[in-house]
Amino acid sequence: MQHLLFAERAVADVPGITAADKAREVGSCGVIGSGTMGGGIAMAFANADIPVVLLDVDQAALDRGLAVIRRNYDASVKRGRMTPADVDKRMALIRGSTSYEDFAAVDLAIEAAFEDMDLKQRIFTELDRVMKPGAILSTNTSTLDINLIAAITGRPQDVIGLHFLSPANVMRLLEIVRTDTTGRDVIATAFALAKKLNKVGVLSKVCFGFIGNRMMEPYAREAERLVLEGATPAQVDAALEGFGMAMGILAVFDMAGVDVGVKVRRANPERQPRDDATFYRASQVLFDHGWLGQKSGRGYYRYEAGSRERLQHDEALRLLRSEGSRLGVARDQPIGSDEIVERCIYSMINEGARILEEGVALRPGDIDVVYTSGYGFPRRRGGPMFYADEIGLDTVLAGLAKYAAQGNAADWEPAGLLRTLAQSGSTFTAWAEGRHQK
Is the pLDDT higher at 34 or at 437? Predict the structure, then answer.
């Protein structure tokens, strides 16, 4: 907990950003997309007394989005967290629109449309056309290359990623993604905005998934393989929740929608390994059967109408076991909780080491803040990189070797930084301190 206290204070210390890089004033905001994410972002700004123009493709979509925002606020009234007057004040700050022309006077735009590069580039072409000089153009993309988005504008220095997590009005994390051309004052503005929105901003460079989702990919990959090998979703999630994760990853997939990850992978075919039929196969099997999670009543678990209680989904268990047998990975012996935790957490740590090697994250502490603020990693363990230091990087390295021997060796190849530090008896913390002193 002490580590996280200091790590959260350090996230805004960005090399090259000085007091001379003054934050721009953000007195108004425009949000593109009134769905779950866009609506949540609009609420986050309204909660901070910042006026919002909320744009969608037509009035019907806009009315649906505004109605959801109203229902969310009304639910807060029922829980005693705000008054009807508070709701009226916030709703008055959110103005619906179907025209980009209404973005002409806003200081910041946040695009929260579907994960489709062509669509986002068309949106940014419109924003570039209508927005005033000095306005900031941002995207909430969770995976796409923001450099390609910035490049189609005439002001790439004003483009940045602001990756909110859902529900955006609740989650503390804001990943601030700098492109190759993002201005220093724009980065300073993003950190100032995060503070104003009562969020913790963490800087990332552009890469697939940035910090949080990139490390989530191997973590979830192993969880999905485990159910093909014979572990039940309940066993996988119970082990991860026993470790301290706020929610097991398969339950997360059911909550968010199994189709979400499937569509992201379809949009990025170059990231699918050609020689590994087990790669996220479990979700694909559920998707093919229309089992999308809570919204369809069936996914990794089964759900009764009006309830989120996870019930055993016997059909899915039989299907996943059969698929594991077909692929030759089903195991006869029970799979223990220790293996589940090690495979999921060690793969996450290894990817974190690569992120540090590549300079995507500035510090291991930044990664820890991302994971404890936005991805449900237990704060009592300090975050994945701090946890790795605590158990010893040699322990993680030995675990990677152990699971590489069981198959899919390429997935367990240690990051160079992890191997070097483990073999020298060092830690991620010591490595970061040494770089800071230089």
Answer: 34
pTM of the complete model beyond 0.90: yes
Nearby residues of 110 by Cβ (< 8 Å), 6 or more positions away: 29, 30, 31, 32, 38, 41, 138, 139, 140, 162
Instruction: List the beta bridge partners of residue 96.
Output: 54
Encoding tokens for residue 402? 């152990």
Rounded-to-integer distance, Cα 252 and Cα 220, Å: 10
Helices (H), 209-363: 212-229, 233-243, 249-256, 258-267, 281-288, 314-326, 337-357
Using CA atoms, how far apart are residues 18 and 166, in angstroms rounded to an integer? 31
Query: By percentage, how much of the chain surpasses pLDDT 90?
Result: 93
Within 8 A by CB and 6+ apart from 313, the residues are 233, 291, 298, 299, 300, 301, 302
φ and ψ of 139, to 5 deg: -125, 145
Instruction: Go through the domains of the chain in sequence order and give each one's CATH number.
Output: 2-205 (3.40.50.720), 223-326 (1.10.1040.50)
